[in-house]
Design a protein that fits this description.
- The protein is an alpha+beta fold and about 150 residues long.
- The chain is about 35% helix and about 20% strand.
- A five-stranded antiparallel sheet has the order 1-5-4-3-2.
- Strand 2 and strand 3 form a beta hairpin.
Length: about 150
């Protein structure tokens, strides 16, 4: 199982930064400080487990896409962002920025993971959408062969 420890140059709120990829998708789960995500990268299935340790983010990955998803870890947690030029003028935004110093804007490079749920959410009920995702997530989990999140195989 490939593992990567990404040293951080400033604090990161892992959950706050990645909450957008968790919401409503059963193939992504936040549990006791660990984010687990199943998906595909460059057409290859993966499962990754992310957590913070002092001064770093640690990722463990499984499946054919494991190495590639770990290579993209800096993008996921916004490590290459440069916050030095961000000086909010509006008081509420300045207050939020002060109170949440670890919040970053990351990117996954997987826009369909966000576009498809938005479209489906407008076309079908939430229950139908969750059932569809549960089925798809189970298929991806089987493709990867389990690991790190209960079950497998």
């Amino acid at each position: 199982m490939p593992t990567r420890e990404l040293p951080l140059d400033r604090p990161v709120d892992l959950r706050g930064t990645l909450i957008g990829i968790i919401s409503g998708d059963p193939s992504r789960r936040w549990d006791r400080g660990v984010l687990r995500v199943a998906g595909r990268v460059d057409g290859e299935p993966f499962q990754v487990s992310l957590r913070t340790v002092p001064g770093a983010v640690v990722g463990e990955a499984w499946g054919p896409g494991a190495d590639e998803v770990l290579a993209r870890l800096p993008d996921w947690v916004g490590e290459d962002d440069d916050p030095s030029g961000f000086e909010p003028v509006e008081a509420r935004l300045a207050d939020l920025h002060r109170r949440h110093p670890g919040l970053r804007i990351g990117r996954q490079g997987r826009p369909w993971d966000h576009v498809v749920p938005a479209i489906l959410g407008q076309k079908v009920t939430t229950t139908e959408t969750c059932l569809l995702y549960t089925s798809d997530a189970a298929d991806e989990h089987r493709d990867v062969g389990g690991g790190g999140g209960g079950g497998g195989g």
